[in-house]
Design a protein that fits this description.
Layout lengths: L2 E7 L20 H14 L4 E9 L9 H12 L1 E12 L6 H9 L4 E7 L3 H6 L6 H13 L5 E7 L6 H14 L2 E6 L7 H4 L6 H17 L3 E4 L2 E3 L6 H7 L4 E4 L4 E3 L4 E5 L3 H6 L3 E5 L2 H12 L6 E2 H8 L3 H4 L1 H9 L3 E3 L3 E4 L7 H6 L4
Parallel strand pairs: 1-2, 1-9, 2-3, 3-4, 4-5, 5-6
Antiparallel strand pairs: 6-8, 7-8, 10-11, 11-12, 13-15, 14-15
Helix pairs in contact: 1-2, 6-8
């Protein structure tokens, strides 16, 4: 089975107020970091791959030539299949012509660019350094360089956000993109937003989510995972690997990898430590870990748990094991159960966590 490849680029021109990802504005570390990535890629085992995802952070703020070097090293080490999906993340303020030209030249065929809100005042309030106009110009630039498989993100629950802002943002994404990711704001500790004491209103976020789902459907976007929507045949093939517990290789600070069975690994979240010694720490999954991960990730998707695939992976029947709980959840109108799969009902996905917890061990 071909691997996915994930490469983490932990650099941003500035840190957003809500961001808890491993990233830094210390751009002077970039050259040394790319050297460490190359060292790690060259030391990895050769394998086939059919998706590559370069995320962050903000890959588009790397110095020009860095992405070319990284992708060339991946091609030199991995057997990357013809037609592989190769995605790079970008932010509007650094998605310029030189960036678009570079990624086009090195075979990137999908770009994920953050919008988050169409309201410039809201963007400033959460520490974003781009405007709506910057986003529009960036998309036009990508299209001029032949990119049409473009994804964008929207966050729900931002301060002062209302339905009209969400609607405008969704219209802009639908007009310009083939894929949309819609996330409920999570305020993590050690972020400026947490320090301010901001807490999203759960009921308002739920209403905005329902609005977003319906709006996207009217514009031809189908949901295939709780936060992800696409036009036909434009799903993120790389992210589907995560939700189906398929193998992937991770490179870079804070990056994880998985052999698809019993072994995961992780890298240090300390960027300087990674630069000095880009090594992985392996850890084994128990049968309970494997089961819980599979159930949790599969039920996030609209396809849910495939009964035959589950039995092939674990050696027993999911429905037989959970018959009593499944019966209660079905009677309560929360899930749908048939001989082929178990899915969370369409209108219950926003409250999936409570459902999934009842099926974990």
């Amino acid at each position: 089975m071909p691997n996915g490849i994930y490469v983490h680029i932990p650099f941003c021109k500035s840190k957003c107020a809500y961001c808890a990802f491993v990233s830094t504005p210390q751009l002077e570390l970039q050259a040394r970091y790319v050297d460490a990535l190359v060292t790690e890629i060259r030391a990895s085992e050769r394998a086939a791959a059919d998706t590559v995802y370069i995320g962050g952070g903000t890959p588009s703020c790397l110095y020009r030539g860095a992405l070319t070097r990284i992708i060339d090293e991946l091609h030199g080490k991995f057997d990357i299949c013809d037609g592989a999906e190769i995605t790079v993340e970008a932010n509007p303020e650094s998605c310029d012509s030189s960036f678009a030209a570079e990624i086009a030249d090195c075979g990137v065929n999908r770009v994920s660019i953050g919008l988050q809100s169409s309201n410039d005042r809201i963007l400033r309030g959460i520490g974003r350094i781009h405007t709506l106009s910057d986003f529009t110009v960036a998309v036009e630039t990508l299209q001029k360089h032949g990119f049409y498989n473009i994804s964008s993100d929207l966050i729900l629950g931002l301060p002062d956000q209302d339905v009209s802002d969400a609607e405008k943002s969704l219209e802009i994404i639908c007009d310009n993109c083939a894929h949309a990711s819609v996330y409920a704001l999570s305020v993590e500790e050690n972020t400026p937003m947490f320090a301010r004491g901001y807490v999203p209103d759960d009921d308002r976020v739920a209403d905005l989510y329902d609005f977003a789902v319906n709006k996207l459907y009217t514009r031809g976007f189908a949901r295939y995972e709780v936060s992800n929507f696409s036009r036909p045949n434009m799903q993120s093939r790389h992210n589907i690997k995560y939700w189906q517990c398929m193998p992937y290789v991770g490179f870079g600070a804070a990056a994880h990898g998985y052999d698809g069975e019993y072994t995961r690994y992780k890298h240090s979240e300390d960027i300087s430590a990674y630069i000095k010694n880009p090594v992985r720490e392996n850890y084994a999954l128990s049968e309970r870990d494997r089961y819980n991960e599979y159930v949790m990730l599969a039920l996030r998707t609209d396809n849910g748990i495939d009964i035959s695939r589950f039995k092939s992976r674990f050696g027993y029947d999911f429905i037989d094991k959970n018959k009593e709980v499944l019966g209660k959840l079905a009677d309560d109108g929360l899930i749908c159960v048939n001989d082929e799969r178990v899915t969370i009902n369409f209108d219950k996905m926003f409250v999936m966590n409570g459902i999934i917890e009842q099926l974990m061990i």
